[in-house]
Each structure stands twice: as C-alpha cells, then as structure tokens.
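User: Predict structure, ligand adenosine monophosphate.
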Amino acid sequence: MPLLKMGAQLFNTLTRRVEEFVPFDTAGKKVGMYCCGPTVYDFGHIGNFRTFVSSDLLRRYLEFRGFSVTHVMNITDVEDKIIARVRQAGASLREYTSKFENAFLEDMRSLGCVPPHHMPRATEHIPQIIALIQKLIDRGIAYRAADGSVYFSIDKYQASGCKYGRLVNLNFDEMRRGERVQADEYSKESVADFALWKAHVPEDGAVAWPSPWGDGRPGWHIECSAMSMKLLGPSFDLHVGGEDLAFPHHEDEIAQSEGAALQPEGRPFVKHWVHCAHLLVEGKKMSKSLGNYFTLRDLLQKGYGGREIRYLLLKAHYRETFNFTMEGLEEARAALGRLDECLSKLQEIAGPATAEPDPEVIAKFIAALDDDLNVSAAWGVVFDWVRDINRQLAAGEVSNERAAAALATWRRMDVVFGLGQKQESEAPAEIQQLLDERQAARKARDFKRADELRATLKDKGWLIEDTPKGPKLKKVEGVLS
Ligand code: AMP
Ligand code: ZN
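Assistant: Predicted complex:
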C-alpha cells in the first residue's frame, strides 16, 4: 500500500470535528469497535441496514488501512418492544427472538457484510449487567426505588465530577419530556434518571431474572455498557450506531460505564464515536402507516439483489441523510451492471494472467476515503477509471497483462466496498435445454424458431450472448425465473 502522510480522518461526535483516527494501542494497530446491533423483534428495514452497511464499510476500511479490528455487535434480545410482541405471539422470548435474529444474520449475508467477531446476546450477559449495576449502586450513583427497579442518578453522577451531555448539548428542563414514562417510573428521584434494572410487572410474563433487587430485567442502555466492556475492555477505540442512538442511548452508555470508574486513569469509555445519518424514503421518515416502509426482504422479493442494494447504500456519505427511492435503486442496478460488464470483459481478456494493482488509482482511492470516508470521491475515482478502461477496451488496447492489472486494481478497492463479483448464474436444466434447441434451430437455418426460443428465454429472465466461443447465457438481474 502506498504510504500517505495522513491517516484515516473520521468525524468524532464526542469532539464534534473530523480528526485522525488513532487507536489506544501503542503499536497503533489493534482497534476495538462496538456497533449497537439490532433489536430482534421484527425483520430489519432498509434504514437499519443503511447503518449496518456503513459500519461494515468502516470496519473494512480500517482493515484495509492496516488496522487489526475486533468487531463486536450485540443482539438486543430483551427490551420493551420485544416483550410486547412476545406477549402478543404467546411464544417464549427465545423462540420469538431467534426467528428474527436468524433472519437478520441471513440479511447481513445477502448484503455482503463481514460477520462481526462477537455477537453477544443481552440475555446471556445478565450476570455482567447485574455486576455493573451493583458497582454503580456501591459508588452511590444508582439507587433502588420502592418497586425494586434500579435507576441511574444523573445528579449524583454529575456531583461525582462527571459531565452528562457529552455527545449532545442538553437542556435539562427539556430532557426526556418526550419519553413515555411508565406509571412505576414515578418512583424515580428525578425525571432525568433512567432505568438500569426494571422490576418485574405482570405484563412481562415469564421474562424475568432474579437479582439482588428482586426479579426483573435489564434496561436497554446498560446491556450495551456491560457487553462492550466485557468484550473490548472498559476503555476502547470506536463505537458506532445510527444518529438516533446518540441520545439518550449512547449518552447513557457513557454515564454508566464511566460512572463505574473502571477505566484506567485519564482514559474515556470510548475514544471515537461515529454516528450514521438516517435513511428516508421518498423524503419522508419510513413508517408502516405511510406505506413507505421496506424491509430488506421486501426489496429482495421485488427481484433486486443484495449486491444492488448494498451498492445503493454505499453511494451516500454516512453523515448525509440518505433518500431512498425505487428509481434510485433502478439507477444503482444500471450503474452496477455497467461496472460488472467492464469487469467481465477484463476477465475474459485477462484469462489466468495475474498482475499488481495500479498504485496511482489506489492512492487516489485511499486519499478519498481517508477524508472521513468520502465515498462519493472514492466512487468518482472508480468511475473515472472504468471510463478510461472502457475507452481502452473499445480501442482494443488492452493486453492480457493490462486486463489482469485492472482486475487486481478493482479487487483491491473492492476489499473496502465488498461487492464481490457478479455470480455468473448457472442456468437450470430447463433453460439449458431451450438454448440447445435454439442452437439446433439455427443449425437447421430455422431462424424464426431460433428467435422464438430467444424470446422464450428472455421471458424467463435469460439473455443469449453470442460470443466467439459460442452462445452464453446471462441472467437478467432481478427477474425471478
Ligand atoms: P434497532 O433494531 O431499532 O435497535 O436499530 C438498529 C440500528 O438501526 C440502530 O443503529 C439505529 O440507529 C439504526 N436505524 C434505525 N432506523 C434507521 C433509519 N431510518 N436509517 C438509518 N439507521 C436507522
Ligand atoms: Zn447500544
């Protein structure tokens, strides 16, 4: 990799500026990265996957830049919305959440996301959660209310010299006014306080664990503090999530984790906070009632491929609100198709030849992404390069070594994008038979029949490309046969 003067620059919500990403590791190599994972009560929507694909891009980029990343993404498998659904479904918590957890993992695979190294479930970390809450009680920052719930006291936390309101500027009078306050939360000392442990109520059904404060379940925020610190240590490098999580979820994670004072002297819970802006659909917040709500599965069912959706999600900068439209998805399909076309021509010319990537193109690509993951500039580099190659291909100027070098250049960049190669789909027997019949018709000079067979194949989603080596079948992306 060419040496560049500056390293990766990344916006840090904590300092509110773009700064060089430097991990705690004195060798500058190891990185601990925690991403808030899905709440598994339903299928993931494309907004969720915008955040997860952005996190995947960031992880891949850090690895590409030579860091050794330990990537943790939790599974929130106990939380208010889940309990409400479990009650409606009459299922056990595990039965219910495992269905959506598996679907989520399958969706992440469809989108080409690299699996995190650890995917801890909240329900499997109750002892760590209880220990952390106990620590906060021992330090006088948390208190047990009359009903057996445990709350975090923001006043006591601030009195201990810590600041609440690190990621966002807070107006304490306005705080949490919008949040739903359960009847049993009136036992809080202050409205700003938040629950660490929620005492069991009849609506929770069988969802409860014993604790020193009585049966109950953890609050959502403490789950992430306990799991991230268990797997990455009390002070780690990078924490990622959607922008809606900055407050209160991440602010509360900081308060709980630093309130427990487990960090080495002078070190924060997390050094670098990264937040991904939201995805809108046709300019509006996605909602089932507006009819603009898409799960990833809805789009796959419409015949779009995971690669096409990933490509679309990778086109916008992570800090820009992304406006999803079906036209945008169609355009993404066409643009990716052009890229694939160019790569497949290169593949044909290159054959088994191998070569090194073009260092100039790679240096421009790195410079673009070093600038706070500027994907638009990075795609600009890719498409200038594709235009150049296409011109050379049209002029017949591409030798097999040159084609191999071009492919190596793309593969190097694709370590970050993770689009992989278009699968030349194997045609099913029925389709292959139609092609054979078409060849036989051509041989017999029955061109009318040959054209009919070509049309039949097209209706079934397969195009015939006549090449010097004979006819090839090409699957039309998105047509389900
Ligand atoms: P959840 O499953 O609701 O806990 O959300 C999982 C992740 O998706 C979190 O990081 C959220 O911030 C993120 N998220 C939720 N809605 C959107 C959206 N419309 N656009 C982008 N990210 C979102
Ligand atoms: Zn979290």
